[in-house]
Amino acid sequence: MPAFRTVAAYVPPGAGLLAVGLVNEVFGPHGQELPGFDFALCAQRPGQLRTDAGVPIVVEHGLDRLAAADLVIALPGAEFRTPPEPGALEALRTAHGRGALVAAHCVGAFTLAAAGLLDGLRATTHWRFAGLLAERHPEVMVEAEALYIDQGQVVTGAGAAAGFDLCLHLLRREYGATTANAVARDMVLPAHREGGQAQYLAAPVPADGEDERLAEALAWARANLHEPLPVAELARRAVMSRRTFARRFTAATGTTPHAWLRDLRLAGAEELLESTDLPVEEIARRVGYSSAAVLREQFVRRRGVPPRSYRRSFANAP
Predict the structure, then answer these.
(1) In what helix (H) or strand (E) does residue 122 lie, and over which residues does it extend?
(2) pLDDT tens-digit profile of 136-173?
(3) What angle do CA 58, 154, 128 make, to 5 degrees?
(4) Do 75 and 109 meet the contact criterion of CB atoms below 8 Å apart?
(5) Which residues in the chain land under pLDDT 50?
């Protein structure tokens, strides 16, 4: 599927004001170095709609714009427990049938499920309502912990600020790491979080000396990505035992040190493949892999294509 250009967000009754602002911030007007999206908010009845915060917004477009877009995003609404509007379900099915990329933020997943677009697929939503989604739609494989789940033509994301992770993933997938990172920098957000990362941290790390040492160790790792970076070395720099370091790391980041380093290396490789003409062997060295073969194996496993194919696709990314 070619990279999307037209983006339409379905605004349900009682739409989440945060979600409306979020998709507008990502796909709305940006600098010339970023893709220029044709973005629209759509509702079954255009006009003034009340949001979950009680603040009204004006939605100019109807569902015909939704059905015709390249990327369609179902936003969350306060009335998600009630059956969705039939016209919206039909517009979503039409878009999906045309081959559009269909996504849902937070409890917008209930709308996609009601349209039958999640049947037989893995999906996520806000962790608080994952049980309800699984109960109402047993044909959907609900995963309560994931930040977002990409099933090809259908992508679902978790609640609240995780919508940024969903949107940045869509940009990264279709336009490459350089574009996604530029948007993230513009919004002062982390460039990339893997979809399998936990939605929330059950036991946040207290703000103490150990927390500061952990942050310093991670900053050192980012600056020395070309090094092997064994966990024992990171723990030593944080002045912790390996066991304590692993526990504190997971509490602070929601993932393991090995997974964090792997994602960091792959993200660095993506940017170098897009923005430089360096040989793959040199890129592998710069991001800490022992050879181009190891980079290729990890890249294919995690990104689905070899590095050279990725470079051909995104070398001219905006």
Answers:
(1) strand 122-123
(2) 999 999 999 889 999 999 999 999 888 999 999 999 88
(3) 70
(4) no
(5) 1, 32, 200-208, 318
Taking only Cα atoms into account, the Rg of the chain, rounded to an integer number of angstroms, comes to 21
Quick check: 113 and 78 in contact, CB under 8 A? no
Residue 56 φ then ψ, to 5° = -75, 150
| 180, two tokens | 């996604």
8 A C-beta contact, residue 115 and residue 92 = yes
Residues 6+ apart with CB under 8 A from 227: 288
Q: Which residue has the tokens 């599927």?
A: 1
pTM for this prediction? 0.74
The CA-atom distances, in angstroms, between 303 and each of 31, 269, 295, 306 are 28, 11, 11, 8
Q: Which amino acid is at 207?
A: A
152 φ/ψ angles, rounded to the nearest 5 degrees: 95, -95
Percentage of the chain with pLDDT > 70? Answer: 90
Q: Which of 79, 72, 12, 71 is nearest to 43 (CA)?
A: 12
Contacts of residue 243, Cβ cutoff 8 Å, sequence gap at least 6: none
- 127 in Cβ contact with 159 (< 8 Å): yes
- Classified as helix, coil or strand, 104 is strand
Spell out the long-range contacts of 188-194 with Cβ–Cβ below 8 A and sequence spacing 24 or more. Answer: 189/164, 191/267, 192/168, 192/263, 192/267, 193/147, 193/165, 194/147, 194/255, 194/259, 194/263
Q: Cα 313 to chain center, whole Å? A: 20
Nearest-CA neighbor of 253 among 186, 285, 205, 191?
205
